[in-house]
Specification:
The chain is an alpha/beta fold and 242 residues long. It is built from nine helices and ten strands. The strands form two sheets. Strands 6-7-8-3-9-10 form a six-stranded mixed beta sheet, sandwiched between helices.
Length: 242
Amino acid sequence: MIAVKNVNKTFGTNQVLTDVSLEVPKSHVVAIIGPSGAGKSTLIRTINALEPIDNGEIIVDGISIHDKKVDINKARSEIGFVFQSFNLYPFLTALQNVTLAPINVKGLSKGEAEKRGKELLTSLGLGDKFDAYPNRLSGGQQQRVAIARALAMEPRVMLFDEPTSALDPEMVTEVLDAIRKLAEDGMTMVVVTHEMGFAKEICDEIIFMAEGKVVEQASPDKFFSNPNTERARNFLSKVLNH
């Protein structure tokens, strides 16, 4: 479903990604973890071409995303992206945020889009928030609206960039529960996260990055119980003991 092949990315003289390769099969959930500055967010942003790459190739559902001949807007409509900072339109209600793209990009009628939007918001525990503006919602509620907005486009793949990092601790669980439900429904997902318990419980594979490279790739059981590399062991000793 997703194949990243020998991808390199620089910002000026800073090499952010170095020869990164990975695969995500259909209906699998992959967590990308690692220290700050490892290149995790840059990598996930290259998967739907929010960031260009210097060389290499990224294929999503058979489409080479960075090929200049590709209609990137059409390709992106199949790839849901949830940012860490919500990025909701403050002047639109929750329902309007969810229906905007299906109406303007996919050409759904307002009635069709609103029916689907209400179903999604209700399924995420926001059935009473259709008419609420973002500033009247908690951080966890805003992030769930953002998830509903991405799902409204009926994507084949969902990408999450630290979806809980901007949340107060008590709001984290409701967002992770929403992602957990998507995993149970068979959605193909890549999640950049610092929530180690979530990664261990939900994900099919862990990708550990450091200094712009994939250092280790393993099942959660193997990675958390017996990582292969000293770099991963050092990382886990810090994040699991604090």
